[in-house]
Amino acid sequence: MTAYLVDRLWPDPALALPLREAMAGFSPPRAPDGRPSVAVNMVTSIDGRAQLAGTAEGLGSRADRLLVRLYRAAFDAVMSGAGTLRASDAWLRVGDELAARRAAQGRSPQPIGVVVAGSGPVPTDARWFDGDEPRILVVGAGNPLEHAPAGTELLRAPDPRPSPRWVLDRLAERGVGSVLLEGGPRLNAAFFAERLVDELYWTIGPLVLGSDALPLIAPFAGDDAEPWPARLVSVMRHEDELMLRYRFL
Fold it and tell me: What is the pLDDT of residues 198-221, one digit of tens each?
């Protein structure tokens, strides 16, 4: 298995560490009172674009793909929006090696998969529905979907667009203590708008797109909005790619 090497630039600088070693001991943020903790994980270009030809494919390296799986393996649930599912047939699992590690720890082999939709169509033939992990599909009040595919719990929100807080409350009722949110930018924006994000994991790929693709977080506030400060937790580098971790204050 490929051992991707990273330089840990901060804190405790060290060069040429295997990525798995550099991530040893990683854990999700502590859950605030009353809800699961939430971290957003995204990759963008240098100019902040989160989509290349409509998806994130091609923005990050193979090392970043491993990093994504390492992040996922630490969380109780992995969430994305239905737009991401439609655009890229999102696959929210951790792979066999990390599934075995989770099982050895007494956890479910795969995190719970969560997809959030509004009123738009849900591609129920997507491979996301084929896994044997627990899956939850959240739809808005007016969504035409009546039944989810076998093995998937269907939750219908009281509003056309499921409120992030409502979604987190339903997950908390099911024992979820931590959620990794993998976009898209509009779902990210909904969580940021309600200040329900605890950490951000941001990989910057060495590309400039110059396009009008959506950024990591879709615009959600006016020019007079109060900024939300964050603290830099760690910085790693793989070749020309930066891997950043921020914690919101």
Answer: 999 999 999 999 999 999 999 998
